Amino acid sequence: MKNNRGKSILGLLLIFIVIAACGFVSWKGVDESGQGAAKNIKLGLDLAGGVSITYEADEENPSAEDMSDTIYKLQRRVETYSTEAQVYQEGTNRINVEIPGEYDSEKILEELGNPGTVQFFEIPEVATDSAEATDAANQTFNLVMDGNDIIDAQVMTQSDGYGGNEYVVELTMNDEGTQKFKEATERNIGKPIYIVYDDEIISYPTVNSVIENGQAIIEGSFTYESASSLATYIRLGALKLNLTEIRSNVVGAQLGQEAIPTSLKAGAIGLGIIILFMIVMYLIPGLAAGLALIIYVLAMLCLLNGLEVTLTLPGIAGIILSIGMAVDANVIIFTRIKEEIASGRNVRDAIKVGFTKARSAILDGNITTLIAAAVLYFMGSGTIKGFAITLALGIALSMFTALVITHFIVKVFYGLGFTSEKFYGRQKKRKVWPFVQNAKFFYIISAVVIIAGFAGMGINHSKGNGAMNYGLDFTGGTSMAVTFNENIDVTSSDGAELLNTITDSIGTGDVQLQNVKDSNEIVIKTQVLNSDQRNTLKDALVEKYSVDESLITEESISAVVSSEMQSDAIIAVIVAGICMLLYIWFRFKDVKFGASAVVALLHDVLCVLTVYALVRIPVGNTFIACMLTIVGYSINATIVIFDRIRENRQMMYRASLDEIVNTSISQTLSRSINTSLTTFISVFALWLFGVAAIKEFTMPLMAGIIAGAFSSVFITGTLWFMMKKIGKKNK
């Protein structure tokens, strides 16, 4: 006994050492560069600003198709710097590139270069000497093919001939490219094929044999980063337009500098309330969960910097969701422990069995969401990728803390002498509610909410206001660069006054302000303005701030979320939904479980759309992240109920199906309420203390949490029952 107590004391000491170590790393980092420190986390344009570069197409009036194609491909290229980089059109032939977390525009320009294309050349007999072919511009090249003939390009390793490995780029060509390359290699046995990017030779491998299979290797003393960058450029093919850089500067945070400290304050308050709630509800296990959550948060901060993840508002949403799922896992476990104690087990056995029984629900819920995150990352772009990264990282870490760290801490407390059931609680006998019998009533409530949303969209559309209040990110608008006589911080009270002046002049509240670093210039972005609105705004700025009207420049800007990105998002969500359905079908051996889960997801999305439509919350870049957060949260809650139904079908073999469903939902009701409440607390704290843009983001999130809890409790289980009942009748 003394030996066990000694081990538990050492275990408790280890816990505090881990917390202290994670805290130190998140504060100072692991080396002189501060790697791992929270203060060095890369922040997105919305939180910290970054580099803004404007390119101009050589063509004066390029086609809309060429501009759209160039913007989309350039967007994918700059994502090598950050998944949160933004690319959008300005005027008729200009393209803006904004890269968050970078503040050296000259360095970015040098690395990004002129966004040209990869081309493959052969050289006539007179110029085959590589020494004579060091400058592509001074040679007569015969074009073999370009990036449009390439299907794929991937980084791989091969032997360097000296016992080591080197990075190379493997190309896979389409049918036309395969034929072109075959003919070129036939003509150039023993001679080089020159690979040129931006008029610069990056590699000139010698042709040793005819290449007929449509695959080739590019060698060139690459690092992994340079090989990966080249592979990305080749995969995206040639840009339709030739671009020239005409302007670059550093812009400030879109949400203002106050967004960071207020979010941190809100996060700390929310975490403190959650830990207090868990202790009150679950006693010693709740304290263990609180310590595990602290480790989770500190480790998450370290990983965000260590893995160089760019954190934005959607990224914060992914972290909030993962915190909610971490709490959810603990709630599932502790509820199981209470149930096992109530069934007559001693505390030691109840802890062991509780963790064992909870594991399947936790794994299924988290794996389902991880599948969605993986699909969103590989198929999405921009904001969606950033959300997917933080969500996947958070889920993996939260699952580990719940199943491993929390378990370890609970056993430590038990070894310290907390062995009485009064420290763990006993589950009271639950009343079984007739959920199945009242299902129609619940469906009517959902239908009324969803119909109200569509009605609101119709009314708004009939009034000419648009069905939804689409923001700049979706609609594009007008960008003005105004040079003031003195520096005005857009996040200060003076900035708020300037914002009021602008909105009073143009009659719309959808305005974004950004400071330009080391100047008095402010970029003002609004929705599309007509000539009268533009003149009114200029007059107001001249009258109130005495600005020089001749220094005001203005351009029309396109949507940040391009049509291609919207298509990517929709396709990614559909594929993610199908993958989740297939996984649920596989795990629960019943496609009806998956079908009812997908219906519940659709219900939650439509309920949140109702909030957007009726409250007229701007539909911007964060809209996609909000919807994805709701989908991830809802599916996790649904899995818990399905897991209990699956278990009870084996145990309650004499009971009717409706009794099993009613019992399962009743048994998990406290878990559904507690998890929804703790997640709601996290989001509510952000809403209460956050800046205006964060309030707009968290309001629909709170509505989604309520909708997700409602659908999980009142719709999924009862809908599965009805599907089973209809299936039996058909048989």
Q: Count every helix, treating DSSP H or I runs of 4 or more residues as helices.
A: 20
Q: What is the count of structural domains?
A: 4
**Strand line-up in the sheet with most strands:** 3-4-2-12
Assess the beta-strand content as a share of residues: 5-15%
Derived from helix and strand composition plus strand pairing, the structural class reads: alpha+beta
Distance between the termini: 61 Å
The dominant shape is: globular
Topology:
Blueprint: H1 2-28, E1 42-43, H2 45-48, E2 50-57, H3 64-78, E3 86-90, E4 94-100, H4 105-112, E5 118-122, E6 142-146, E7 150-159, E8 165-173, H5 175-187, E9 194-197, E10 200-203, E11 215-222, H6 224-235, E12 243-251, H7 259-306, E13 310-311, H8 313-342, H9 347-379, H10 383-415, H11 439-462, H12 472-475, E14 477-483, H13 493-506, E15 511-515, E16 521-526, H14 531-545, E17 553-557, H15 563-588, H16 591-615, H17 621-651, H18 657-667, H19 669-689, H20 692-730
Parallel strand pairs: 1-13
Antiparallel strand pairs: 2-4, 2-12, 3-4, 5-6, 5-9, 7-8, 8-11, 9-10, 14-16, 14-17, 15-16
Description:
This protein folds into four domains: 50-114, Alpha-Beta Plaits; 118-238, Gyrase A, domain 2 (2-Layer Sandwich); 259-452 and 562-730, no CATH class; 477-557, Alpha-Beta Plaits (2-Layer Sandwich), CATH 3.30.70. The chain starts with a helix and ends with a helix. It has 731 residues and is of the alpha+beta class. Strand 15 and strand 16 (521-526) form a beta hairpin. Helix 19 packs antiparallel against helix 20. The mean pLDDT is 80. It is globular. The strands form five sheets. Strands 3-4-2-12 form a four-stranded antiparallel β-sheet. Strands 6-5-9-10 form a four-stranded antiparallel β-sheet, covered by helices on one side. A four-stranded antiparallel β-sheet has the order 15-16-14-17, with helices on one face. The protein contains 20 helices and 17 strands.
